[in-house]
Amino acid sequence: MSHFGRSGPPDIRDTFSLLVLNISFRTTADDLFPLFDRYGKVVDVFIPRDRRTGDSRGFAFVRYKYAEEAQKAIDRLDGRNVDGRNIMVQFAKYGPNAEPIRKGRIIEEAEKSRERSRSRSPRPRHRDDNRDRESRRQSRSRSRERHGRDRDRDYHRHSRSRSQSQSLSPEYKDRRGGRDDDKHRSRSRSRSRSYHSASPNRCSASPSKRPTPHRSPADNGSPEKQTNGKGSPPSHSASPVPHRAGSRSPASDGKE
DNA sequence: GTTGAGCGTT
After folding, report:
1. pTM
2. Which GO biological process categories is it annotated with (predicted)?
């Protein structure tokens, strides 16, 4: 029972994946198994680890055999204090193979055909009510990236095209002299996490609305204006020598 | 020893 995630996925044919977030970094699958297993039949528990360090990322995946048990576990374990941290249990949105998951269950072709006219609603009894989930921590930490686990992906992204510089230095913004626009740009601090397959319903945005607002051509024409106008690159520093109170020289360094 | 948004492996 302690070999979760060591032999790969056992069988995700009809298993419901639950995503457990906000778990302690010390929490292991073995610790979550008894907690979730008491509410239903847990098929497997997996906690993604870091490739470099191998530490837990802070979230785990619990696969249930039945959705009803999974839902019960969510309602029971969601917001529960585990290892000193309030864990958040919810249905997984994406599958291990980048497959879309519906209510924690991987969408299969067979099921899609079945939706033609079969079960009206698998669970029409209750709806996802945001009772105390809304009380989840609003204060999102400013530091989304601690070590840079997305660094690998961003690294490649930068190589392709960094038209939209996510990290805009304040100095660079002053150079352009357009702070107002920056504010708007700062608003859309989307992580730009383009998944392989996004939900169609969510992508049903108006075509007229441009998802990627390009900056005004005027800004592009004169992205930066140097007061000197000489065209000196900003990389060059204007203050070469940081003279100190007693500018010591190698020639007269004999005395302190 | 630390961190704290999110979506997964043999």
Report:
1. 0.50
2. mRNA processing; RNA splicing
